């Protein structure tokens, strides 16, 4: 596919991104030398993550921002947000060419007022497509996808630091999910989506995001091979999101190694939708493993939990860091301790 993008522009973007990566690595290296004594230990998740140049975020549902405890917990504990649903295709383009950004704008404004970063989720996904998309075929779907990416990424340019450009395109066995996108557009659709996002917002980090990639397995290896191919051909991809929807006690023996092998390809890695079904010490231990794995990989830029409180989780197995009364759980303490230890060398 011909590059729709003037080379000079992409060269400038690559240079800017390379500079940022070097700076981030430098910050991480310097931060790692910082002695974090108990007296210096941060008291919130976001502040602690920032000590190693990272973010710690939460997925946000606009309908809860008016609830004081929700807003206070979100604004106090986290330094990054992502819209749980408000920036998805069905929410942002309910009718062809008619964009509605009110929900996403509300989250962006709320976060910017508090100096918080904003992740974008998600430009193209087989789920939560508006009805008018689901029947499209061939170039009609291709044009609709590119137009959607362009409209949304244009709108949020400069406000979103990273986009989940494509979400959940692979099956457990490493084959492509046979979605309307795959069937109608063929194997090139993911590359086309990334190139459209790069043209629309050259400042944002462009990520591929998926679940079930919590170690070295058939699915994560298929994604690894795609990223390696993209990097070899200069397809604009900057990061991979590991959703990490887990259960207490899951086997995470290759979790860190998997993150590291992606980082070694030259992309950032992000934990994008972390939640751990369960409770008590078992849940806390799994959160601890994920947190320490991210801290051990220099290009792991941050962690997002998929919600603020168990009360509003999409799951019914108390998977988050705050309970239904916004009380800190054992898992919260485990994560904060890991974050506070993560930047220290002694
Ligand atoms: O907005 C409608 C509302 O108008 C209607 O009254 C209500 C009842 O039918 O439904 C509302 O839509 C719901 C939407 O969340 C917004 O609340 C959908 O039914 C519901 O299915 C949807 O669930 C979301 C789910 O993605 C959709 O697949 C969850 O909140 C959200 O946490 C979940 O998040 C996904 C990530 O985007 C991708 N990774 C997996 C993760 C968990 O499934």
Largest sheet: 8 strands, parallel, barrel
**Number of helix segments?**
13
Shape from CA axes?
Answer: globular
Total E-strand runs: 9
Overall structural class, as computed from helix and strand content, comes to: alpha/beta
Radius of gyration computed on alpha carbons: 19 Å
Give the helix proportion (percent range): 40-55%
Distance between the termini: 51 Å
Indicate the proportion of strand residues. Answer: 15-25%
Average pLDDT over all residues? 92
Which strands sit side by side, in order, in the main sheet? 1-2-3-4-5-6-8-9
Write down the secondary-structure element order.
HHEHEHHEHHEHHEHEEHEHEH
Bound molecules: ligand G3I
Q: Spans of 5+ residues with little confidence (pLDDT < 50)?
A: 1-11, 27-36
Layout of SSEs?
Elements (H helix, E strand, L loop, with lengths): L6 H27 L11 H6 L4 E6 L7 H10 L2 E4 L5 H4 L9 H11 L4 E9 L5 H4 L3 H18 L6 E6 L12 H6 L3 H12 L4 E6 L7 H16 L5 E4 L2 E3 L7 H9 L4 E10 L2 H17 L3 E6 L24 H13 L4
Parallel strand pairs: 1-2, 1-9, 2-3, 3-4, 4-5, 5-6, 6-8, 7-8, 8-9
The structure holds ligand G3I.
The site of ligand G3I has 9 residues, from loops.
Organism: Glycomyces mayteni
EC number: 3.2.1.8
InterPro entries: GH, GH10, GH10_AS, GH10_dom, TAT_signal
């Amino acid at each position: 596919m011909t590059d729709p993008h003037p080379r000079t522009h992409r060269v400038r973007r690559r240079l800017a991104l390379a500079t940022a990566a070097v700076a981030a690595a430098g910050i991480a290296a310097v931060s790692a030398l910082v002695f974090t004594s108990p007296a210096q230990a941060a008291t919130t998740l976001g502040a602690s993550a920032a000590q190693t140049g990272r973010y710690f975020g939460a997925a946000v549902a606009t309908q809860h921002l008016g609830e004081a405890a929700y807003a206070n917990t979100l604004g106090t504990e986290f330094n990054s947000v992502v819209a749980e649903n408000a920036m998805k295709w069905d929410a942002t383009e309910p009718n062809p060419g008619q964009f509605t950004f009110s929900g996403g704008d509300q989250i962006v404004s709320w976060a910017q007022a508090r100096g918080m970063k904003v992740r974008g989720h998600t430009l193209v996904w087989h789920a939560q497509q508006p009805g008018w998309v689901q029947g499209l075929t061939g170039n009609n779907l291709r044009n609709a996808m590119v137009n959607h990416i362009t409209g949304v990424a244009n709108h949020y340019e400069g406000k979103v630091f990273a986009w989940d450009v494509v979400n959940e395109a692979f099956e457990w066995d490493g084959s492509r999910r046979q979605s309307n996108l795959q069937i109608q557009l063929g194997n090139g659709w993911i590359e086309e989506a990334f190139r459209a996002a790069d043209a629309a917002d050259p400042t944002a980090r462009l990520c591929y995001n998926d679940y079930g990639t919590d170690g070295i397995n058939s699915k994560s290896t298929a994604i690894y091979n795609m990223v390696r191919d993209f990097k070899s051909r200069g397809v604009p991809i900057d990061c991979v999101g590991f959703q990490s929807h887990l259960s207490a006690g899951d086997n995470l023996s290759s979790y860190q190694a998997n993150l590291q092998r992606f980082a070694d390809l030259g992309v950032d890695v992000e934990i994008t939708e972390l939640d751990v079904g369960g409770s008590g010490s078992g849940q806390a231990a799994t959160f601890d493993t994920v947190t320490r794995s991210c801290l051990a990989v220099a290009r792991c830029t941050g962690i997002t939990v998929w919600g603020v409180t168990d009360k509003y989780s999409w799951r019914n197995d108390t998977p988050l860091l705050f309970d239904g009364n916004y009380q800190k759980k054992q898992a919260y303490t485990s994560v904060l301790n890991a974050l506070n230890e993560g930047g220290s060398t002694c």
